[in-house]
């Protein structure tokens, strides 16, 4: 296994790296930002990539926001982009359900464990859903619930799929409904199964911690539709008509971002050390994936801009 090439501070190597790719798939949490903190030099680096005619696509597993909601976040943080450049796991899941799963009405409703991002992307594909941010689920379970969930009187007969994403309001009541739908044969999907969520330079429970209890209860593993799922890669390739050999995946997590790029047979993968994984993780004998290149932070790529300015 070739050792990853360290690019930070090596202007010639960075220029050579940039010349190899036309499209950069950019992870968000841990690469662009940590919560609402944008890493230093990110905006200038995006400018540099675009000034060299590179296509930038933001590919995030974070399902709490839709493309429109992400555009608001990017704009609010001073990062120029548009919804066409944003491809999240909530969108990836919605197009999988509407264009591949294609459940027949009326049993085509989705029981959502997640936030508004999933709901808005399901709406954009005209997929009916229940659960999610519905306030009637944000409460403790009651004796009426125990009875109504057990005898099915409180369940929606049209639910054919359970979709689990990062749910910041998960509780026993929601898990109880989801369990019953899965026991009744609903398809088990997840936007992503990241174990942790890098936020504010620390770690919080990831989306995987939402679907995992249901997997434990049912013995069923969800089909995950975010990175490293190749269903997502195929959808991105189709949407952007990209040449995989001229495309580089940039990420902070080995078992999602880097694995996604490698299994997608992309021309390259670049790991940044501002998020989940560190160098020791890919140097470990049982490393899940090894990047082709790495930098301390994304803006190390942008250093070539300063260099060419100093040269001119
Ligand atoms: O738990 C999650 O959903 C993930 O930690 C988070 O969303 C990762 O987002 P990404 O790094 O793919 O932008
Ligand atoms: Mg990340």
TrEMBL record:
Divalent metal ions. Mg(2+) is the most effective. Keywords: Hydrolase, Magnesium, Metal-binding. One of its GO terms (molecular function) is alkaline phosphatase activity. It comes from the Eukaryota. GO terms for cellular component: cytoplasm. It comes from Trichocladium antarcticum. Its cofactor is Mg(2+). This is 4-nitrophenylphosphatase. Mg(2+) binds at residues 27, 29, 252. Its EC number is 3.1.3.41. Transmembrane segments: none annotated. It is an enzyme of class 3 (hydrolase). PANTHER family: 4-NITROPHENYLPHOSPHATASE-RELATED, HALOACID DEHALOGENASE-LIKE HYDROLASE DOMAIN-CONTAINING PROTEIN 2. It catalyses: 4-nitrophenyl phosphate + H2O = 4-nitrophenol + phosphate + H(+). The active site is at residues 27, 29. The keyword Lipoprotein does not apply. Substrate binds at residue 227.
């Amino acid at each position: 296994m070739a050792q990853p090439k360290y690019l930070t501070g090596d202007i010639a190597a960075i220029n050579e790296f940039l010349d190899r790719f036309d499209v950069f798939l950019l992870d968000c949490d841990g690469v662009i930002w940590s919560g609402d903190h944008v890493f230093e030099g990110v905006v200038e680096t995006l400018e540099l990539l675009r000034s060299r005619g590179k296509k930038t696509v933001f590919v995030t597993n974070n399902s709490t926001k839709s493309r429109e909601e992400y555009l608001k976040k990017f704009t609010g943080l001073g990062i120029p982009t548009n919804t066409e450049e944003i491809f999240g796991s909530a969108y990836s899941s919605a197009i999988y359900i509407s264009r591949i799963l294609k459940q027949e009405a009326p049993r085509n409703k989705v029981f959502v464990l997640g936030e508004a991002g999933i709901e808005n992307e399901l709406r954009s594909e005209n997929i009916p859903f229940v659960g999610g941010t519905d306030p009637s689920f944000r409460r403790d379970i009651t004796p009426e619930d125990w009875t109504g969930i057990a005898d099915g009187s409180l369940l929606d007969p049209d639910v054919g799929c359970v979709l689990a994403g990062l749910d910041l309001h998960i509780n026993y009541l929601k898990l109880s409904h989801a369990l019953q739908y899965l026991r009744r044969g609903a398809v088990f999907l997840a936007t992503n199964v990241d174990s942790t969520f890098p936020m504010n330079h620390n770690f919080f429970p990831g989306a995987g911690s939402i679907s995992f209890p249901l997997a434990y209860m049912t013995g069923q593993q969800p089909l995950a539709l975010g990175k490293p799922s190749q269903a997502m890669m195929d959808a991105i390739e189709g949407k952007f008509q990209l040449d995989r050999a001229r495309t580089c995946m940039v990420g902070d997590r080995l078992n999602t971002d880097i694995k996604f790029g490698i299994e997608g047979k992309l021309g390259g993968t670049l790991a940044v050390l501002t998020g989940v994984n560190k160098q020791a993780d890919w140097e470990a004998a049982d490393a899940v994936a090894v990047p082709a290149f790495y930098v301390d932070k994304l803006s190390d790529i942008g250093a070539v801009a300063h260099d060419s300015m100093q040269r001119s």
